[in-house]
Amino acid sequence: MVLSSFHDNFLGSSADWYKKTIIAFLIINPILWFSDLHFIAGWALVLEFIFTLAMALKCYPLQPGGLLALQAVAIGMTSPEVLYHEIEQQLKVILLLVFMVAGIHFMRDLLLFTFTKILTKVRNKVLLSFLFCFAGAFLSAFLDALTVTAVLISVGVGFYGVYHSVASGKKFSEDYDNSGDEGVHEYSREDLDKFRSFLRSLIMHGAVGTALGGVCTLVGEPQNLLIAEKAGWEFVEFFMRMAPVTMPVLAAGLVTCVILEITGVFGYGQTLPEGVRSVLSEFDAEQELKRTGKDKAALVVQAVVGLILIAALAKHVAEVGVIGLMVIVLLTALNGIVEEHKIGHAFEEALPFTALLVVFFAIVAVIHDQHLFDPVTELVLSMPLDSQPIVMFAANGFLSMISDNVFVATVYINEMVAAMNEGVITREHFEVLAVAINTGTNLPSVATPNGQAAFLFLLTSALAPLIRLSYMKMVVMALPYTLVLSIVGGAAIVIMF
After folding, report:
1. Nearby residues of 418 by Cβ (< 8 Å), 6 or more positions away
2. Residues with Cβ < 8 Å from 353, sequence gap 6 or more?
3. N or C: at which end does the chain have fewer Cβ atoms within 10 angstroms?
4. With contact defined as beta carbons under 8 Å apart, do 65 and 11 qualify?
5. Closest CA to 437 of 497, 366, 477, 483
6. Are the beta carbons of 412 and 367 closer than 8 angstroms?
7. What are the structural domain ranges in the chain?
8. pLDDT the model gives residue 181
9. Per the confidence metrics, is the pTM higher than 0.85?
């Protein structure tokens, strides 16, 4: 009886086969490790962790992934000191998640107001998708992909909640659980399914847009800043160095967005049902009538703080997470949000993912300690100089698909710095390889959610289960973008360098 209860409690309501799989992983890993098969054990751990990410909708990856990470530290695959060092190295990303994502939460009224206007006024789905993709790219060039993804999530949850409430016979203002469809009227279910498909396509266009824009500037992605620091490039020089690759890729990505919506393949093309549009229009009209002077003042404050946010990030006056804290202080102080529980609610979305990211750093520490990527480094540097940029692009792209692009970029830019310092490559060749590393880690990595933190953030967000966005669904919907971005990026590397 007690043993049965332990089994029931282990990973909660997860499927029995999933629980047994995780237990099998925990048994296999020590056997491999203590059999002196360290390299194999390391890669087994990486693949097991990727499995937990792939099954994120079966069980949040923090718990099974955390167990794997704890075991790795306990049996000596890495050490607490190395793990702490990895956390120190990525403190900027952690601060970003903790404060910037929470800061965006306090701008949700302005975001919902703005995007509701766009959604109800722009009836052409192709144009609407283009606007979402372009906006994701533009904002990511000055903000960062995680921040922009937080905006997309906030907007998506807002849209979904508005229609789901009406489809369930509720009023807009009623607070209720919209995670299930039990209360949805039968005649609204078809429109709800179509609305989910519509939102999935918009959100994915926007998410890919964050990759298109994020690769362009040193503030777009965390690894960009590291690469720029190692190469000694400022904001404008970084943009100019990347432009021969990033500008053709941006154009190709936007064209792909349009083609996907016209053809309706890979899960795209669903238009907004008129029934849903009328509900959103009614919601917009009702909000206009209910909007008091205090509400309007709050929107003005959010707009002004939004401009301050963009300016602060563009000028990089402080680290992104610190700027996020500034946003929280300004928006809560000027809009009268002084209750602790209201402030605490803003952190609910980001903190589980922050904890998951720290668990991921433990896996990264194992990769570092067991030198899992060394064979690829040695292979690249053994090739002819003119072949190295495209091979570096491809290698970084492939590894970023199955690992984390921040870690891959960190490993390889450090390897190239060491090679330059040892005289193996020249300064000029190093700069070419830096471009290949940056574009390689940013573009092909859209293939999987674990490739980019922004995609994983979306997958593990509150929005994903609402719109039925699973791991494999994201992979399928990202596939055409992956092919286009990889081919165009690779071709640009070959032609320009």
Report:
1. none
2. 97, 456, 457, 460, 461
3. N
4. no
5. 497
6. no
7. 1-77, 93-212+245-350
8. 59
9. no
